Amino acid sequence: MSYIQVRLDGLASKALRKGKDLVQTVGVINADRGINDSQGTIYKSAITKVCGFSYFTLEIRSDNAAFRNIYAKDALAAIRKVAKERNVKVEFEKIGEDAPLERLDGKIQDCIGGACREAGASSVRMPSGAGHDAAVVAKQKHSDGKTIPVGMIFIPCRAGKSHAKEEFATNAAITKGANVLALTLLRLASN
């Protein structure tokens, strides 16, 4: 399994060097073959032997659906190649697949940018391939059939870590983010 993960890391690094928007996460790593206990039981494993079964999850995110789909095929091909090289059997199970939100609403982004300048906050337009609520809302439609416009405001976290137990944002960053949100809503309401 580690050979596969190293190969996937190399594949992701190559895509990132080409400037592609990509987040690849190897999440669950285990070998419990259906045993789901709090002790983390490993299937037929011991310190002195290699387990005959293991699995991991692979999440691939990008703000570009076409690139993500091609990359996913390349990742599966890389896994199959390592499995053949190591003489192991691999099986795949797709857990889920949602189309990414490729673009946020330009008008909302402009309002957020203006609100940042007014609040004295720095800003960077950036993609987010994550399945935020904004991505779900953006796929909904008004009664006239148009999609709902969305934008997102991120605030800085210590060491850039978010969605982790180490996540921490200062009161000043939270306050500035709330001010940017309020100013954005005022701008949107007055347009």
Outline: elongated
User: Taking Cα atoms only, what radius of gyration do you get, to the nearest Å?
Assistant: 21 Å
Q: Identify the strand order in the major beta sheet.
A: 1-2
- The separation of the N and C termini measures 54 Å
Strand residue percentage: 5-15%
Q: Give the fraction of residues assigned to helices.
A: 40-55%
SS elements, strand count: 2
The count of domains is 2
Order of SSEs: HEEHHHH
Q: The biggest beta sheet, please?
A: 2 strands, antiparallel
- Mean pLDDT rating: 87
Query: Which class best fits the helix and strand makeup?
Result: mainly alpha
Which residue ranges are poorly predicted, with pLDDT under 50 across at least 5 consecutive positions? Answer: none
Number of helices: 5
How is this fold's topology laid out?
Elements: H1 2-17, E1 23-30, E2 55-61, H2 65-86, H3 106-119, H4 133-138, H5 171-190
Helix pairs in contact: 1-2, 3-5
Polypeptide structure, described:
This protein has 191 residues and is mainly α. The protein has 2 domains: 2-86, no CATH class; 106-190. The protein has 5 helices and 2 strands; from the N terminus they run αββαααα. It has helices at 2-17, 65-86, 106-119, 133-138, 171-190, and strands at 23-30, 55-61. It has a two-stranded antiparallel ribbon. The longest helix has 22 residues, at 65-86. The protein is elongated and about 65 Å long. The mean pLDDT is 87.
